[in-house]
Amino acid sequence: MDPISKNRIRTPDMCMVALLGGILGTLLTGCGGSGAKLPPLAPVSGRVTLDGSPVPRGTVTFVPDESKGTKGPTAVGQIGPDGRFTLQTAQQPGAVVGHHKVRIRARQEPKTPQEEGKEPSLIPTKYENENTSGLSFEVKAGQKNEFNIELRSQ
């Protein structure tokens, strides 16, 4: 085989190796390989009640309170039928250590696809905004942070 033919065969092989290497690098980075580093997290769980009864569905969101020096991504947890939740931050268990404002969203289940996003709230709407909820908690390092969030309808 002449040198020109060898180059024609090798060039596509090298392009394929480079392409596969780029795809693999992207996949590893997307799976947490070298993404942004999170601040320290601590486990957070608890229970949400309204007037003493479990809130059966929704989400709890802990928003770092920058006015108290806490920075980082928010933590979110799904509320189960018993009112219990466990927080995660960027798909990692826990919430950023420090002070947080809290918001809770709990809506009735939509009866039809057209009602999605328009469901009535199961709780007073003031709790849906961290600035009006009146809810705040401090997440502490090295502790099991268990928060019972007691909401009132009045």
- Summarize the biggest pleated sheet: 4 strands, mixed
Ranges where pLDDT stays below 50 over 5 or more residues in a row are: 4-34
How far is the N terminus from the C terminus?
A: 87 Å
Order of helices and strands: HEEEEEEEEEEEE
In total, how many beta strands?
A: 12
Report the β-strand fraction as a percent range: 25-35%
Radius of gyration from the CA trace?
24 Å
Shape: globular
- Looking at how many chains there are and whether they match, the oligomeric state comes to single chain
* Helical content (DSSP H or I, runs of 4+): 10-25%
Number of helices: 1
Mean pLDDT: 83
Q: Per CATH, what is the topology of the largest domain?
A: Immunoglobulin-like
CATH architecture title of the largest domain? Sandwich
Description:
This protein has 154 residues and is an alpha+beta fold. The chain has two domains: 1-35; 41-151, Carboxypeptidase-like, regulatory domain (Immunoglobulin-like, Sandwich). Helix content is 18%, strand content 33%. The chain contains one helix and twelve strands. Strands 2, 3, 6 and 12 form a four-stranded mixed beta sheet that branches. Strands 5-4-10-11 form a four-stranded antiparallel beta sheet, with no helix packed on it. The protein is globular and about 40 Å long. 24% of the residues are buried.
In short:
This protein has 154 residues and is of the alpha+beta class. 18% of the residues lie in helices and 33% in strands. The chain is globular and about 40 Å long.
Task: Provide tags for this entry.
12 strands; four-stranded antiparallel sheet; 18% helix; four-stranded mixed sheet; Immunoglobulin-like; 154 residues; alpha+beta; 1 helix
